[in-house]
Amino acid sequence: MNKHIDRERQLGRRLAATLLALSAMAGAPGAVAATFVPDFDGATFRPGAAIDHPYFPLDPTFQAVLSASGMDEEGEAFTEETQLSFGGPGRVILGVQTTVQRDLAFEDGLLVEDTFDYYAQDTDGNVWYMGEDVTNYIYDEDDNLIETNDSSAWIAGENGASPGWIMPAVLEQGFAYFQEIAPGDAALDEAMIWSTGQTVQAGGVLFEDVLAMLETTSLDPEAREFKYYAPGAGLIRIEEGLDESFSNPELVFERVTVAVVPLPASLPMLLAALAVILGLRRLRSHALGAV
To answer: How far from 95 is each of 1, 175, 187, CA to CA, in Å?
Structure first.
């Protein structure tokens, strides 16, 4: 969860709350009983298996750009951009070969975060979040790079961290689960399936059958955001900085480039693509005939 307006304040709250979260999890296990903890020991994986979840496709063709703009606390305009792409095979974590999604975050054109997220899909279709390597870039007031750090990085099996789900196979409204289980690294993101079957416009494109996911973390009660996923496309919209009623976002990212992965059952999409191809062929034939 990244925010331009209060990135440093949010990081401070997360770090300050880590010991409290560790204490709560150790001393009061019932406190987190409402959020499902995925059972990694009970999962099975096929070596080299593709990540082909309809709402979280990650293959060599995958790439997406989401952008947002707003005003900071000083009243100055800013822009943010997130570039997501397929990164090939990743680390072997807890004996599982992962696949990388690379996430580049920019603020006003400056690279502020370069993340390698590690995912793997089990034989039931759940997409596991196995960890992330992060490089954060810190600049001075004149946009000169002054330092880097790896804050928020975590790897399952290290420092007490366990894998979570980034996307479950069964999408049931109201289902809540852990995405990250790494309190020692200040990473305890949770998700709840808020709704399914929505129609959402993002980047001038109308998406059907959209999944809305609410993400929160016990390390920062004020960090609330919706993420919207479309079948065959993945993440298309992010609403950050929601208020206590889960509305009025501070910042909204929309997908500005969409590389859709065709779904086997998406006949209308395939027919539309064929229509375009046939139309181009007719135009080309007409043009050649006119020469």
So the answer is: 28, 28, 22
